[in-house]
Amino acid sequence: MSDDEASTSTSGRGPRYTAWISLLAFSCISMGSFVSLKDKTYDSSTDKWVLSMTALSLCISAIAVIASVAASAAFVGKMGEMALSTMCTIFWCVVLGPIMNPDNLYATGGYFGLSTVLNANLYFSSWAAFIAAFWISGSLARDAKVLDVSDTTPKTAQWYLLLAASIVVLASSVKIYNASICDDFPDNSFCRRTKFAISIGVIGMVMALVGSIMSALGVMSPLIEVITSVTLFGLYCFGVGYITFGDGPGTAIGNLYFSTWAGFILSGAIFAASLKDMRGGAKSGDGDAAPAADEAKVDEEAPAAEADAPMKDEE
After folding, report:
1. pTM of this prediction exceeds 0.85
2. Which of 66, 179, 221, 264 is the most buried (most CB within 10 A)?
3. Cα(207)–Cα(8) distance, rounded to whole angstroms?
C-alpha cells in the first residue's frame, strides 16, 4: 500500500468508508421496505428475524460510519472495524435466504416454485447490502494480508462471478422443479426447460469452479480457457432462450432470470478476453521469431566479415 493510500485509509475517507455509507443506505432501504410491507404486523418468527437482522445491520453500519469520521485512527483497519464488518456479513448471509424465499412473500413470491419480484426496493437493496458487506470484509482481509487479491486479474474475477451465477441458476431451478408438478408431468415443455436449467447450473458450476481455480493459480493455457469459455457461452446462449422465453421457468423477474442473463454475459466476456489473449500470444510468438532469425543471420555474417578482414590488411 502506498503512502497516499495509507493516509486515505487511516483518515476514514477511502473506498471502504464509501462502502460503509452504501451499506448504511441499503440497510435503511431494506428495513424500511420490510416495515412498510408488514405494516407493523410481525406474526411469525421469520418476520421478527428479518426485522432484527436488517435493524442490526443498520445500527452497525451507522456506528462504523461515525467511527470512521470521529475516531478513524483507532477504528479504520483495526479490530473494531473487522468485528463490525464480520457481524454485518454474517447477518446478511443468514437473512438473505428468508428475504428471497418466495414462500415468505417478502421480496419475491409465486407458485409452483416460480418466483417473481414483489417488492423491488427490498429485493435490490438486500442484494446490494449483501454485496457491500462482503466487499468491506474482503477489503479488510486484503489490508490485513489475510487475503491477497493484488494479483487477481479481471478475468479471474469474472470466473468467480460466473461460478456464483451458476450456483444461483442451479439452486433456483432445483427449487422450481421440486415445487412444481414435474413429478406427475415430466415431459411437458416447462419441466423439460427446468431440467435444462438444472443441467446448465451443474455444468456451469463445475466448469466455472475449475476455471476459477486454474485462472487464480495461473496454470490455465489460453487454448483450454478458450475451449472452456466457448462451451459455457454456448450453453448460456441456449439457456437464455430456453429458460427466459416462452414456457421457461425464468420468464418472471427473479433470481433465475437475473442469474441466467448474468451467466450469459459473463461467459461471453470471458470467451472474448480469452480469445484476445490467445491471439495476442500467437502474434507475440511470431514477433519473437523474427528477431531470432535476424540474430541468426547476423551470427552467420560475422565469421565471413572476420575472414575478409585479414585479406584487406594484406592488400
Report:
1. no
2. 264
3. 39
Separation CA 60–CA 90 (nearest Å)? 12
By CB atoms closer than 10 A (0-12, 13-18, 19+), residue 314 is exposed
Residue with cell 428468508: 98
Q: Is 213 helix (H, G, I), strand (E, B) or coil?
A: helix
Give Cα separations from 204 to 43, 223, 239 (angstroms). 40, 18, 11
- The domain segmentation of the chain, as residue ranges, is 1-149, 151-284
Start-to-end Cα distance in the chain: 68
- Strand bridging mode 116-117 / 108-109: antiparallel
CA proximity to 110, closest of 241, 240, 245, 255: 255
**Residue pLDDT, tens place only, 7-50:** 444 455 688 999 999 999 999 999 999 999 887 677 788 999 99
How far, rounded to the nearest angstrom, does the alpha carbon of residue 312 sit from its chain's CA centroid? Answer: 72
Cβ burial 55-76 (10 Å sphere, 16+ → b, else e): bbbbebbbebbebbeeebeebb
Q: Which of 13, 309, 1 is nearest to 149 (CA)?
A: 1
What grid cell was written down for 235? 450453453
Query: What residues are paired with 116 via a beta bridge?
Result: 109
3-state secondary structure 88-118: HHHHHHHHHHHHHCHHHCCCEECCCCCCEEC
